[in-house]
């Protein structure tokens, strides 16, 4: 519903949630072969995100929990991304050992998190402006690609020359990220070249995408490397929508092999926002009997 507007329209998102939440939950239960009376708790995303959509989920969770007489567990969806690595299809599937570092890269966040335990996480670095996903999406938009642009850049980059164009990289102290300079530099490159050749973007789509993707990956990996050296942590996980990117996945794997570290790269279905990761985060809180009060409200912004 958002594609034709080139970005998420909050009002449309809330309405779509309202329309879909009952059929989605119903379908999920049917596919899982679980009756709603077998549920022991309801986990829901309390934030961060768009308030209108969060209100729909929060209210629905409260209603369902009262109807079924089971507790509710509120989940910070960023915890969900980090803990998605503990979703196992088989008992024998490996899970990360604590402590591990998680590079959380999504449409709204770019963070390096030190995960000491499922309930003990520290943000070592975060974006001071745009998130990595926004850099992908905004640059894709100026190239005329559909929203969200990240997957299109990924696809095009596979056929392009990543060394063809050079874009600005930030000089930010510590482990924080910045992507606004790259975005501007990308925009100026397009503007300057289009003046000379009106078909510049069309004729260079793949090289532009590959060069942009390479630069974003270099920015991400530079701070991740610093965090590894600073903490001495030996296990690296990635999560969030941008961790679906082929280049990011490859770079992290390759980096871990080179340095003798253990990578945890999530299955693509668990990279973008999904309910399974909210369930696993809720499950750990449930085991700790950390239930949510009925007067709790969603939050638009929150840190891990
Ligand atoms: O975690 P997520 O589903 O939700 C939000 O943070 O909203 O992340 C969505 C972001 C979008 O910016 C999208 O363009 C990006 O993840 N994304 C990708 C890829 N798949 C999704 N970026 C680059 N390459 C991809 N393959």
Characterize the structure shown.
By secondary structure, the chain is of the alpha/beta class. The protein has helices at 10-32, 51-68, 77-83, 132-142, 150-157, 180-196, 200-203, 205-231, 246-259, 275-287; strands at residues 42-47, 72-76, 100-105, 110-117, 120-126, 235-239, 262-264. It has a five-stranded mixed β-sheet with strand order 5-4-3-6-7, sandwiched between helices. Strands 1-2 form a two-stranded parallel sheet. A hairpin with a 4-residue loop joins strand 3 (100-105) and strand 4. Helix 4 (132-142) runs antiparallel to helix 8. The chain is globular and about 65 Å long. Bound molecules: 5'-O-[(R)-(carboxyoxy)(hydroxy)phosphoryl]adenosine (KG4). Residues 106-108, 133, 136-137, 148-151, 153-154, 240-242, 244-245, 272-273 line the site of 5'-O-[(R)-(carboxyoxy)(hydroxy)phosphoryl]adenosine (KG4). 5'-O-[(R)-(carboxyoxy)(hydroxy)phosphoryl]adenosine binds next to helix 4 and helix 5.
What radius of gyration results from the CA coordinates?
20 Å
The total count of helices amounts to 10
Q: What structural class do the secondary elements suggest?
A: alpha/beta
Q: How far is it from the N-terminal to the C-terminal residue, by CA?
A: 29 Å
How do you describe this structure in short?
The protein has 304 residues and is an alpha/beta fold.
Strand and helix layout:
Blueprint: H1 10-32, E1 42-47, H2 51-68, E2 72-76, H3 77-83, E3 100-105, E4 110-117, E5 120-126, H4 132-142, H5 150-157, H6 180-196, H7 200-203, H8 205-231, E6 235-239, H9 246-259, E7 262-264, H10 275-287
Parallel strand pairs: 1-2, 3-6, 6-7
Antiparallel strand pairs: 3-4, 4-5
Helix pairs in contact: 1-2, 3-10, 4-6, 4-8, 5-8, 8-9
The structure holds 5'-O-[(R)-(carboxyoxy)(hydroxy)phosphoryl]adenosine (KG4).
């Amino acid at each position: 519903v958002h594609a034709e507007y080139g970005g998420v329209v909050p009002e449309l998102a809330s309405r779509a949630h309202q329309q879909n939440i009952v059929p989605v939950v119903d379908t999920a239960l049917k596919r899982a072969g679980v009756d709603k009376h077998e549920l022991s708790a309801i986990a829901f995303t309390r934030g961060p995100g768009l308030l209108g959509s969060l209100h729909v989920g929060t209210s629905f969770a409260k209603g369902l929990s009262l109807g079924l007489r089971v507790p509710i567990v509120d989940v910070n969806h960023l915890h969900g991304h980090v803990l998605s690595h503990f979703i196992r299809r088989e008992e024998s599937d490996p899970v990360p050992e604590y402590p591990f570092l998680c590079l959380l890269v999504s449409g709204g966040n770019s963070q390096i998190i030190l995960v000491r335990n499922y309930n003990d996480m520290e943000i070592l670095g975060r974006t001071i402006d745009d998130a990595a996903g926004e850099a992908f999406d905004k640059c894709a938009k100026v190239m005329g690609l559909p929203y969200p642009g990240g997957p299109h850049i990924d696809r095009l980059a596979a056929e392009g020359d990543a060394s063809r164009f050079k874009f600005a990289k930030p000089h930010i102290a510590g482990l924080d990220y910045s992507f606004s300079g790259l975005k501007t530099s990308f925009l100026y490159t397009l503007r300057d070249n289009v003046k000379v050749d009106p078909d510049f973007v069309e004729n260079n789509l793949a090289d532009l995408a590959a060069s942009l993707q390479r630069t974003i990956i270099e920015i991400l990996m530079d701070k991740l490397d610093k965090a590894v050296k600073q903490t001495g942590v030996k296990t690296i996980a990635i999560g969030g929508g941008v961790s679906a990117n082929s280049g990011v996945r490859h770079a992290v794997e390759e980096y871990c092999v080179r340095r003798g570290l253990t990578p945890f790269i999530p299955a693509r279905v668990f990279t973008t926002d999904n309910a399974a990761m909210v369930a696993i985060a809720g499950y750990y809180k449930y085991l700790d009997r950390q239930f949510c009060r009925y007067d709790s409200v969603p939050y638009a912004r929150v840190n891990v």
